[in-house]
Amino acid sequence: MPQLYLVVDDLSQWTHTLPGEAVISFETYLTEHPIKGQKKTRIINLCNTDQYLSTGYYCSLLAEARGHKVLPPANTLTDLSSQQLTLVQAAEVLEDLDQKDLTRTDDGYAFRIYFGRTALPQLKMLARRLFERFPCPILEVRLAFLPGVPASAAPAEVVAPVDAGGDTIIVDSWQIRSVHAVAYAELDAQEMPEFVSSLEKFTQSVWRKPRSSKASRWDMAILVNPKEKLPPSDAKALKKMERAAQKMGFAVEFIGPQDYARLGEFDALFIRETTAIDHHTYRFARKAEIEGLVVMDDPTSILRCCNKVFLQDAFTYNDVPTPLTRIVSSSDDASLDTLESVFSYPIVLKIPNSAFSVGVMKAEDRTMLKKMLSELLVKSALILAQEYLYTEFDWRVGVLNNRLLFACRYFMAKGHWQIYNHGEDRIGSGGWETLPTYEVPKAVLDAALKSAKIIGDGLYGIDIKQQGNKVYVIEVNDNPSLEEGVEDAFIGDELYMQIMSEFARRLENRGR
């Protein structure tokens, strides 16, 4: 089990007895650590962090240099030192605040968050989300309600929305005025019970969670979401992943969207939830990368794969064969005329960030084209128009670190032109057939490898259509489906062993 240390500025200020926790001064941590032979060390930094080069800042910086997992990480302290940057990020979490629960007062609210917890029940969700965004032991937050205040009269630090005309900025809701890190030494006697209680709950449920009795070399988090309707992996596949990871020396824990602040516990993150940019999956990937975890798929791959405008441009410039495609930004008559001069009906329309056939439409005539384009352009400034290529199935080729992993045929849903048919009551899908890669046409494999290399060296699923001897790359998926009895139907458990071997190889290369 990892050794946990609480680091404070002055040891004489610490008056609590917490079983199993070692409390040391910053001076001790500076001069006596790292301890030889003590590989897995966790640090909770409770020092003063009010300045860029304070003891608290150096504590987190040294912890990261020594390979220790630390709360808060140095990048969090850097973010908090810039209130303008902090407030831009903090404004994004206000969507979880039920503003009806807050009584409007002239003074607003000033409250402290201890390890993601607050005593104010109406602010518990906001506290958790702020802790996820700024993982810091103690945060001080100020909220203010500014009803209908013009921008010229609003406080300079308030992040305010711009109206459609771009001329006047009006603030008319609760706003986060400030978010600051607080040192342990700044707490008064009345705050200590809540701080100690929150610390105990945090260390017991998160940092001190018991591991398997069998010693493991690394810790892996697998991000899943039980509420997801179309998860990329089913329960049986996830179990096989866990067994494969354990064989490669990993202790595995399945985590969910609520575990953002826990990423510092792990050495690797495997995302098994459908990814998107404006979504917690991307934030998990980004935070994991910053904290030095091996993460699959990485944030760069998510950025590139989740936007079909990028994919189309990248494919064009790298001579990857694709269907005839145009990027559309308007549904006016001139744009429709241009599309009709390029395509014959039907025309396929796609939102750039569509997944599992959601946000993909087929226009059979000009009336449908105008209607569908108008609907989609409300959701995205750019829409892709593509020629319709009828095939009975799509190829899905799995690639890991630019090596072939699996190959499947996904057949169209019955009576539908896509693999997935999103009906009113249920989601239908077609059948599949998994083949050894040596039975797949060379042109399909070559196109898959070429397109995957454009994205990176992660785990990808490349969708390809084939008509005769011609192949067309439709997209590259950064989070491909891995389901028991489907993608693993030919090589079985070896599919999961290869993935976990790649995680282990990357950690080995980092000296972990």
TrEMBL record:
Q: Which GO terms describe its cellular component?
A: cytoplasm
* InterPro entries according to UniProt: ATP-grasp, ATP-grasp_RimK-type, ATP_grasp_subdomain_1, RLAN_dom
A Pfam short name = RimK
| Protein name from the UniProt record | ATP-grasp domain-containing protein
Q: Which PANTHER family match?
A: BETA-CITRYLGLUTAMATE SYNTHASE B-RELATED, RIBOSOMAL PROTEIN S6 MODIFICATION PROTEIN
Query: What molecular function does GO assign, one term?
Result: ATP binding
Lineage of the organism? unclassified sequences, metagenomes, ecological metagenomes
Species, as recorded: marine sediment metagenome
Boundaries of every ATP-grasp domain copy: 312-504
Q: Name one GO biological process term.
A: SOS response
